[in-house]
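Hey, resending since the last one bounced:
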Amino acid sequence: MNFDSIITNKRVIFVGPSRILEGSKKGIWIDSFDTVIRTNGGFPVQEKYKEDYGTKGQILYVNVSFSKMRYPLPCKQYKENGLEYICFKAGLPNAETLKEYTKYVNCRSFMESIKTLSKYVPGLLSGSAALHDILQYNPKELFVTGMDFYLAGMWEWDQAYFDNYLPQKTLEQAKVRKAQGKLIPHDVESNKNYMISLYNQNKILFDDEILKIVNLYKN
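The structure tokens again:
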């Protein structure tokens, strides 16, 4: 199946890893979309999260750290749970790895969206680039949920994200960098403003939780 056929003219939802969905019981609603897109360790969805986060996932976007730290990716398990595409932030894996992965799922890179958007959004986050990438294929609707823009703190990933979203090694490295006072090159406000601009142009939709975070919620 071609990538565009999963998105073009489809009702699509991008599900982030924020804990703000815990207790929401939005799983059935999320699974009602034609195409469900998740990121990093957000798929397959753990049993304890299914009521809130749903179970479907046709597309998975992964960043460089995740694809390296959790190598090799469990592509057979992905396929068994319905995944069709992995989208890599950097270029595609080496030929040997790619050959193994594509036994089960299709692989593509969203590097072009990274290159394009990084010119306009300082400290670009993978989520912003993924939304830009998805929009190139003209979904009928692109809903965004499960994002909190680091409300729990830039470094508190173990608190901000649901369990197993990031490899343990990544979490440990973040704690070391935090203790050293080193900042990661992400600009949350620029990314937030970019996503708000997409919302204001009617290119994406936010659920009430995100609207409250970005001060756009109206009773």
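The chain has a mean pLDDT of 91.

Sorry for the duplicate.
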